Amino acid sequence: MTKLTDRFGREHDYLRISVTDRCNLRCLYCMPEEGMEFAPSSDLLSYGQIVEVVKAGAELGISKLRITGGEPLVRPGLDGLVRRLAAIPGIRDISLTTNGVLLADQAEALRDAGVNRVNISLDTLDPSRFKFIARRGDLKRVMAGIEASARVGFGPIKLNCVLLKGVNEDEIADFLRMAYEQPLHVRFIEYMPIGHADDNWKAHYLPLSHVLEIAQEQRLEVERIEDMLGNGPSEDYQIRGGKGSFGLIHPISDNFCKNCNRLRLTADGNIKPCLYWVDELSVKSALGNPTALRELYLRAMDIKPLNHEMAAKLLDENLSHEPTARRMSQIGG
């Protein structure tokens, strides 16, 4: 079987699938405050078309999937899609990234359909600050989603916390305490300039070395761990005696591209080799033709760059290529 190997020898077995660009929150690092113009439903891939694209990828070695958005749980019938994806030969792991607001009501159906693991966005433990960051929604519903995830047996349960300077860095110790006291896996993520690289991004950017400094101030004994289940670039740590763990995902301060094994399928039908750059390959003209779909995957390998250059953007240096103008919600997290 032909493998999805790029020009730099990286083998790709992981596809992140955005099912919608819509979201029930308006998080300040993901969307502008005024909101966005969402793609009409007619522009989005149908579930049948998504299955078709995944089947072609599975024939080339794609075995791990992550369902994303926007907020994937706002699209009706998601468990039906998961069930169809889980039935594709070669697919052995399906995970979900969600803001958690709708998760409590859907967790059991998604687990039964074939979702193994969940990542839940949680940038603050303070209800009023949640309103500031997300601009809408209710923290209680997210916490209910976390509880439901544990109840139905998702594992591990990862909490994604985007650190924002001047906004939530004073909660790092609280999140570390959560990772110590509960069997949860907190992942601190650097704020990325996806679709924007304005002064506001630079003002809120915080390198994740700060997390380890806080751990030291709290006199926590931490040690690196290497066996955390998942597909991402997280640098993971255990707090001695703790029930959970925490991880650092730092695309800016510590480029993680050398081990990249992922492609993205946008909700409107584009294979995206790299989150940061503008390059996309439309699948729509290849639908109904498995050979053409496989050729698109191979083409994505040919054009995938060695790395992104987000750190250069932070320093106002020239970039070698054109960054995407799409926001994170339009690409898929």
UniProtKB/TrEMBL annotation:
Residues that coordinate or bind GTP: 16, 66, 97, 158, 262-264
Q: What is the free-text note on the cofactor?
A: Binds 2 [4Fe-4S] clusters. Binds 1 [4Fe-4S] cluster coordinated with 3 cysteines and an exchangeable S-adenosyl-L-methionine and 1 [4Fe-4S] cluster coordinated with 3 cysteines and the GTP-derived substrate.
Molecular-function GO term, any one = GTP 3',8'-cyclase activity
Return the EC number.
Answer: 4.1.99.22
Pathway where this protein functions? Cofactor biosynthesis; molybdopterin biosynthesis
Q: For binding [4Fe-4S] cluster 2, which residues are annotated in this chain's numbering?
A: 257, 260, 274
Task: State the oligomer form and interacting partners.
Answer: Monomer and homodimer.
What protein family is recorded? Belongs to the radical SAM superfamily. MoaA family.
Name of the protein described by the UniProt record = GTP 3',8-cyclase
